[in-house]
Each structure stands twice: as C-alpha cells, then as structure tokens.
Automatic annotation (TrEMBL):
Family stated for the protein in its record: Belongs to the SOS response-associated peptidase family.
Organism domain of life: Bacteria
GO molecular function (one): lyase activity
Gene3D superfamilies: 3.90.1680.20
Keyword DNA damage in record: yes
Name of the protein this chain belongs to: Abasic site processing protein
Entry-linked Pfam families: SRAP (PF02586)
Top enzyme class: hydrolase
Keyword field: Covalent protein-DNA linkage, DNA damage, DNA-binding, Hydrolase, Lyase, Protease
Keyword Lyase: yes
InterPro entries, alphabetized: SRAP (IPR003738), SRAP-like (IPR036590)
EC number: 3.4.-.-
Length: 204
C-alpha cells in the first residue's frame, strides 16, 4: 500500500491481512496531511444525516446534497485501498456474497473515499467505543455491466492509476467528481462467490 499509493507517512501500524471488512470496522485509508500522503486506520461509516436513524453511512451517491458537500473538499478526500469487494446476489433462502476484483490476481486499487473526524459512540452494543473517531465512506455510481446483474443499485467508484489517485486527492471538486463513474466492464470480473470473506492473495 505504501508503494502503490506513494505514501510518505505511515501511521497505520502493522495492518493485518483483511479478508473482509464490514461496516464500523477499522481499515487502512490514504489521506493527504501537510502535503504528504499518510496511511492511517479509520472506521468505516459516516454518521447518518439527522433523523435518518443511527446506522453508519458506508457509501455516498448524491454528492449534490449539502450533507456531503463539506466533506468533498480536497482535505477530506481519501483513497480506500482494496483488492476485492463484494455485493450480495438476491438468492433464496439467503443472499449470496459475490466478490469482484480487477482480475484473479486481485491487484490493489482504491475506492474514491471521504473522511471526517467525529465525536460519539461507535462499535457494537457489546463493545462500544466512545470518544474521538476518524470515519470514512466512499462514493458510488450507477453499476457497470459486471456488477449490475448482481447489484443493480450501484457500484463503488474505483480508481486504478496514480493519475486518478492524484486527481481525487488534490483536484478541485468539479474535476474530482468527474471520477464518479462506473469502471469499464472489461476492467472488472467476478473472482469468488458464496463466502463472506475473500481468499487473500500472496503479494511479494
């Protein structure tokens, strides 16, 4: 991650292999601090808008909403590293997780994310975590032809090049939001199905 995202400051500690990341869990993200790219762990899910309940908001589609506009400034944008991601196929009796990646080798890419500081209680009822939190979410768009048949609502906004990473982290809002589009069909494939976790790939 340090090499792929040109990170010069690593504040994430010893990140373990993460074969699945669920809402409200910690995961590494890349943000810009004092002109340097920093790798740091944050908790997945923004606090919801008022009167929307208390479930963390894990992804953002309507970037025109005043609720999100403040967090689309360059200083609050981040990269959310991924090797694969899952959506649930609407099967019976229970939904089936389907895993997508750039290819079977699961190379690193990044979701176009946003982050914010927040004070409150997160975690589970059994293990509440009170105090200061750093939270992240990421953008979605209309699905492409690979994800659409499984999950017709949306696809995460995926960035795959150093140029896209730089635009998302530093460009003016209008330019950065041009990246809010589905990945071309030929750049994504189904790599696993049925398990709630994906198989980690050895990276040397």
């Amino acid at each position: 991650m340090r090499r792929a995202f040109e990170v010069s400051r690593d504040s994430a500690g010893n990140v373990p292999p993460l074969s699945a990341i669920f809402p409200d869990q910690m995961a590494p993200i890349v943000r810009t601090q004092d002109g340097e790219r920093e790798l740091i762990q944050m908790r997945w899910g923004f606090p919801p808008p008022p009167k929307i309940g208390n479930h963390p908001v894990t992804n953002v589609r309507n970037v025109a909403s005043p609720f999100w506009r403040a967090w689309l400034k360059p200083q609050y944008r981040c990269l959310v590293p991924l090797t694969s991601f899952s959506e649930y196929k609407d099967t019976k009796p229970r939904k089936t997780p389907v895993w997508f990646a750039l290819n079977k080798d699961r190379p690193l890419a990044a979701f176009a994310g946003i982050w914010r500081p927040w004070t409150g209680v997160r975690g589970t009822k059994a293990e509440p975590v009170e105090g200061e939190h750093l939270l992240y979410s990421f953008l979605t768009s209309e699905p492409n032809g690979v994800v659409g048949p499984i999950h017709p609502k949306a696809i995460p906004v995926i960035l795959t090049t150093s140029e896209e990473y730089a635009v998302w982290l530093t460009a003016p809002v209008e330019e950065a939001l041009k990246l809010q589009r589905p990945l071309p069909d030929d750049m994504l494939e189904i790599v696993a199905e049925g398990s709630r976790v994906d198989q980690p790939v050895d990276v040397h």
